[in-house]
Specification:
Layout: E1 4-8, H1 13-24, E2 28-33, H2 42-50, E3 55-58, H3 64-73, E4 77-82, H4 89-94, H5 96-116, E5 121-127, H6 151-169, E6 174-180, E7 182-184, H7 203-211, E8 218-221, E9 233-234, E10 236-238, H8 239-254, E11 262-267, E12 273-274, H9 275-286, E13 292-295, H10 310-316, H11 324-338
Parallel strand pairs: 1-2, 1-4, 2-3, 4-5, 5-6, 6-11, 7-10, 8-13
Antiparallel strand pairs: 9-12
Helix pairs in contact: 1-2, 1-8, 3-5, 5-6, 7-11, 9-11
């Protein structure tokens, strides 16, 4: 019998790719999503790719009663991957209370029900934002966390603290936090990808929408950082590689291979690319025109960060495989497909 995994935020960008990888690895998936930043049509795309329809419930995890009712209905869940959260750095600076209410309450409601229904395994979607601007690069898992540069980043740090404290007093519950660097790209089928509602907050969808003529020009936030070309540096990881790290983590927990009941891993490529490098690579590999302008720095952004992934590579047996060129090509194929530009 297939093991049932709950994926919260499963119609979102990373969630949908992870659902595909889970189904292809032989798991049965149930999705919770409130569709605040995703589309219900994603379910059809997942079925086209895998031949299977995941279960789906539309609900808000920040609502205690709705969450409790869900777990009464679904009583065969073996493990949870928790993506559902507000995630825009800039917006979180403007709307801090929304971010604290949504991101913290949804996790606490989940944990409460895990305890009540004896669900032992959770993989949490964390972020490299918990490191702030590190003193030393690359970032390892022993790099000290710093005060976050944004309320969004702070919610991820607080959620990690909640997981650590909760698993400490409930040793039967095992949690893995995956600290993502910058997920980009799309599934090679071009059937799912990053499609934010409204104006994109992330760089690559803004690039692809500008190339598609939906946005007039790309804004590059700041060219006076202490980096070789003055633009901010990030570790950009292909979303399929990232999704596979979740499958590996779920298996680690279910098979009892974890070494503590709260673990955390850096999930990136180990390479830093600047914003301008990314823009120029996108233009080169896709042979498109991409108008852009330099604007002021954006509140909450850090200067440079990239991962040391050796611990995740050795401990999880996982490694990012896809090149930046292949990843940027997949992002453009997805954009063309969704806009009917092929």
């Amino acid at each position: 019998m297939k093991k049932q995994i709950l994926v919260t935020g499963g119609t979102g960008y990373i969630g949908s790719h992870t659902v595909v990888e889970l189904q292809e690895a032989g798991f049965e998936v149930v999705i919770i999503d409130n569709l605040s930043n995703s589309n219900i049509e994603v379910l059809d795309a997942i079925k086209k790719i895998t031949g299977q329809s995941p279960g789906f419930e539309k609900l808000d995890l920040a609502c205690k009663k709705s969450t409790a009712d869900f777990f009464e209905k679904y009583n065969k869940i073996e493990a949870i991957i928790h993506f559902a959260a507000y995630k825009a750095v800039g917006e979180s600076v403007q709307k801090p209370l929304d971010y604290y209410q949504n991101n913290l309450n949804s996790l606490m409601n989940l944990l409460e029900n895990m305890k009540r229904h004896q669900i032992q395994h959770l993989v949490f979607s964390s972020s490299c934002t918990v490191y702030g601007q590190p003193d030393k690069l690359p970032v390892t898992e022993s790099t000290p966390r710093k005060p976050a540069e944004s309320p969004y980043g702070n919610t991820k740090a607080i959620c990690e603290d909640i997981l650590r404290d909760f698993s400490n007093v409930n040793p039967e519950i095992n949690c893995v936090a995956l600290r993502y660097f910058n997920p980009i790209g799309a599934h090679p089928s071009a059937l799912i990808g990053e499609l934010p509602l409204g104006v994109p907050n992330n760089l690559v969808p803004f690039i692809t929408q500008t190339a598609a003529g939906i946005r007039k020009e790309l804004s590059v936030f700041g060219n006076d950082y202490n980096t070789p070309d003055g633009t901010a540096i990030r570790d950009y990881i292909n979303v399929v590689d990232l999704s596979q790290a979740h499958v590996v983590s779920i298996n680690r927990l279910i098979e009892g291979k974890h070494k503590a009941n709260y673990e955390f891993f850096n999930i990136g490529t180990g390479n830093g690319f600047s914003v301008m490098q990314l823009v120029k690579t996108f233009i080169e590999v896709n042979k498109v025109n991409l108008p852009y302008k330099i604007t002021d720095r954006r509140a909450g952004d850090i200067e440079k960060i990239w991962a040391d992934t050796s611990y995740a590579n050795s401990e999880l047996g996982w490694k990012a495989q896809k090149s930046i060129e292949e990843t940027l090509q997949s992002a453009w194929e997805w954009e063309k497909n969704v806009r009917n530009l092929n």
